[in-house]
Write a structure and sequence with these properties.
By secondary structure, this protein is mainly α. The protein is built from five helices and no strands. Helix 1 runs antiparallel to helix 2. The relative contact order is 0.04.
Length: 126
């Protein structure tokens, strides 16, 4: 088989076989092969341009909608973030105080005693 026969074969297999199973991957491969051979360049260019625009439009719309939504929620997100940051700071300070005082062991023992048996078995199995 010559190279041109292989190219024709892969193009026909792409349109007949892979088009049903692979979707746009096989279609794009075949269009790229035609372009590499210098055949049907205007049609290949137009098809790939239409495919690119069609793939980009939903992404642009999603980005535009997401940006508007985030700008609307910005003040709430900032205030919630400050509150969560303060809560984690307090939790960290409480943890340090418990560790330095040695009370962390008593809290750990109390939590282990209060937890259900199945939870202790699952968490200590391995």
């Amino acid at each position: 088989m010559t190279v041109s026969m292989l190219s024709r074969r892969s193009i026909s297999e792409g349109f007949l076989g892979c088009h049903r199973h692979c979707g746009f991957a096989g279609f794009g491969r075949n269009r790229s092969l035609l372009a590499a051979q210098g055949r049907d360049l205007p049609q290949v260019t137009l098809t790939m341009l239409a495919f690119g625009v069609g793939a980009a439009l939903p992404l642009l719309a999603l980005g535009w909608i997401s940006r508007e939504t985030l700008m609307r929620w910005r003040s709430r997100l900032v205030s919630t973030g400050k509150g969560i940051k303060s809560a984690f700071g307090l939790l960290f300070i409480a943890s340090v105080v418990l560790v330095i005082s040695g009370l962390d062991k008593a809290v750990e023992t109390w939590l282990a005693d209060a937890s259900p048996i199945w939870l202790t078995e699952v968490t200590t199995r391995f």
